[in-house]
Amino acid sequence: MTEQLSLHGGQRASGRLRLFLPSRVHLRGEVSRAMLCDLSTDGALVLNATELQAGEQVILCWAGFEAFGSIRWSDGQLAGIGFQESLPWETVLASRQEQDERGFSAKAAEYWVQGSMGVDGNDGMLSV
């Protein structure tokens, strides 16, 4: 369930757990919606509503957790975030459990990406 290789080549410092959880990215006083696509103790892959630039400092918030880090790479709306401090594995595993409990399906994720459904609880979807 974890991967060792980066999308952009090379070895990862730690394995990543694939997820699809609603999240928020805080950057320069602005907050944007995002999807947390994978997570490890050292970083995350996010699909963000706005393009992020390598080197920018961000706070990633998801499922009651948050982590401070910087954008390591960005390719359009996908971005890799490296965390300033490693997360405990319990946080990574709890994030997976949160996804399972919420039942966030691939179809709901597709609607979210297309912008045709919100994740604010007003349409029966998930709140962030």
List the helices and strands and how they pair.
Layout: E1 2-5, E2 11-27, E3 30-39, E4 43-48, E5 57-62, E6 65-75, E7 78-83, H1 89-102, H2 106-114
Antiparallel strand pairs: 1-2, 2-3, 2-5, 3-4, 4-7, 5-6, 6-7
> Helix share of residues?
10-25%
CATH superfamily descriptor: predicted glycosyltransferase like domains
The first-to-last residue Cα distance is: 24 Å
Written as H for each helix and E for each strand, in order along the chain, the element string is EEEEEEEHH
Strand portion, in percent? over 45%
> Structurally, how many domains make up the residues?
1
Principal-axes geometry comes out as globular
Q: Tell me the CATH architecture.
A: Beta Barrel
Mean pLDDT over the full residue set: 78
The parts where pLDDT drops under 50 for at least 5 residues are 1-12, 117-128
How many E strands? 7
CATH topology: Thrombin, subunit H
Number of helices: 2
Q: Biggest β-sheet: count, sense, barrel?
A: 6 strands, antiparallel, barrel
What is the structural class? alpha+beta
Identify the CATH class.
Mainly Beta
How big is the Rg? 14 Å
